[in-house]
Amino acid sequence: MSFRFAEPDADTLPLHVVESDGVEGFLDAHPEARAWVEAAGFTGAIGDALLIPGTAGTPVAAIAGYGTAATRRRTRFALAAAVARLGRHSYRIASGLPESAAEEEALGWLLSGYAFTRYAGTTPVVAGLVAPEGIDAARIEVLAVSEALTRDLINTPASDMGPADLEAAARELAQTYSASIEVTTGETLEAEFPMIHAVGRASPRAPRLIDLRWGEAGPTLTLVGKGVCFDTGGLNLKPGSSMGLMKKDMGGAANVLGLARSIMALGLPLRLRVLIPAVENSVSGNAFRPQDILTSRKGLTVEINNTDAEGRLVLADALALADEETPDLIISMATLTGAARVAVGPDLAPFYCDDDGMAAALQAAGSAQADPLWRLPFWDPYEAKIEPGIADLDNAPAGGMAGSITAALFLRRFVTDTPNYVHFDIYGWNPSPAPARTKGGAAQGPRAILAALPGALGL
């Protein structure tokens, strides 16, 4: 999978993008194609596509349906829906694609070439696209490769994506972009990051904290990604129906690594730090238990009322470390709560932010980048729900209400000095295929964050 735009040559075909109500206008402008297009029943609906032959019978052009404004509001990467029907030719956009949509549709076209083929299958051969005029082609290629990295990491089963494998992926990224990396394990991890150690100690695959740094000058950004490589639920064992997708519980780590790759590949003028607590939440005789009280790196004590609420524990120690340097911005990403899925479903990435300007910039960037976000509140009146009395904090408040909010409030307790903190409670998975988005691992939030960074950090 190259995720690169095609170079124009003599064999490049013109592609006309045609809306549903523009078919007749297209045929008026191209009367030589009328009989062929009408016989094929082309309607201009999203996903409709047709090669147009010349007098010799070989294709001389193609048309792709673009639906209506109403159907496009319901479909990200609408043009990508037609790619599979355009064969193996290369195309240049000849007409019909709005300039404002060119970047989104170009990215969608490249992402149509993604497939997870590590264990079976072949890489799809999709139609090539010459970069539309006016877009930053190099940037879009970077975004496509970065998203493919995120998808690959999430799609890889836990048998081949444990803490050490996640570390290897981070090391490969660091080597590619001349970043430094340190990994904390063993007795040092137990002493300095006690909650990361407690969650991961029951697994034979040792827990660790991955710490990557890149950049020598500029504002400081720290990304923290939940790297729970598989989550059994611990002693509060998940039922089988809930455990089936837990290979994706390191989706936060996968998303921050994809975002970090984009930042480094594009050479943004900032100092980047990536922290990933990588663990497997397993069951054994030394697993942490319900009613245990853990002391975090920050010194706050945490009562364990559910061992299946482990993601916030490992993130808390990593956030405490991040906060000690008071970077300009900390962003955490995690497949943290089922409550977030109940609230907004799998398609939206909910986020929490106390800064209204930052929140507005993220939401606007999400819309512009076809990477939709939805702000949820750090709701201060719910703080009491995470205070059990016997310890400073409760990792799983009783009652079952506002679970995503109380988890976010829990994490915020570990960021006390940094001026701006944003938390993403993502799903990291497409439950069904869609244009440019295969079923499986998903990037949620990185493109929006990347677009919002210049304003947020003054780049």
Account of the protein in words:
By secondary structure, the protein is of the alpha/beta class. It folds into two domains: 13-132, Leucine Aminopeptidase, subunit E, domain 1 (3-Layer(aba) Sandwich); 142-457, Aminopeptidase. It contains 15 helices and 19 strands. It has helices at 23-29, 34-40, 69-73, 102-111, 137-155, 163-176, 186-192, 194-200, 240-243, 251-266, 311-324, 338-344, 356-368, 403-412, 446-457; strands at residues 13-18, 49-53, 59-65, 90-95, 128-129, 180-184, 208-214, 220-225, 227-231, 271-281, 293-295, 301-303, 329-334, 349-353, 373-375, 393-394, 421-425, 429-430, 440-441. The strands form four sheets. Strands 6, 7, 8, 9, 10, 13, 14, 15 and 17 form a nine-stranded mixed sheet that branches. Strands 2-3-1-4-5 form a five-stranded mixed sheet, sandwiched between helices. Strands 11-12-16 form a three-stranded mixed sheet, covered by helices on one side. α13 (356-368) links the parallel β14 and β15 (373-375). α7 (186-192) packs across α8 (194-200). The longest helix has 19 residues, at 137-155. The radius of gyration is 24 Å and the shape is elongated.
